[in-house]
Amino acid sequence: MTKAEIQLVKQRFGIIGNAEALSRAIDVAIQVAPTDLSVLITGESGVGKESFPQIIHQYSRRKHGQYIAVNCGAIPEGTIDSELFGHEKGAFTGAIGERKGYFGEADGGTIFLDEVGELPMPTQARLLRVLESGEFIKVGSSRVQKTDVRIVAATNVTCRRPLLKDVSGRIYSTD
Question: Which sequence spans correspond to the domains of the chain?
Answer without folding.
Answer: 3-173
